[in-house]
Amino acid sequence: MFVLFSKFAPRCAVCHKGIVPVEGEKESVRVVAMEKSFHPACYRCEDCGLQLSSKVEGAGCYPLNSHLYCKTCNSNRLRMQDTV
């Protein structure tokens, strides 16, 4: 069954590995953002590495120019763009 999952599973946009169920589980967990799939552990801010989550204040995903950022890093990037 694992071979079937790994052959047809969506690939994580960060680590490029298949998003397959954890051993003992029947379903896999994935995050979809900007039409890309991510393992929950790979779904992180591209600047500071904070694990993104809609359940934690300030840790939501704030995309900018096709990149994933946390609220703080998104704000910093926007400020840098304004000064250019």
Automatic annotation (TrEMBL):
UniProt xrefs under InterPro entries: Znf_LIM (IPR001781)
Residues covered by the LIM zinc-binding domain: 10-80
GO cellular component, one term: focal adhesion
Top-rank taxon, per record: Eukaryota
Entry-linked SMART domains: LIM
GO biological process: cell-cell adhesion
Annotated keywords: LIM domain, Metal-binding, Repeat, Zinc
Gene Ontology MF term list: metal ion binding
Name the UniProt record assigns to this protein: LIM domain protein
Species of the source: Dictyocaulus viviparus
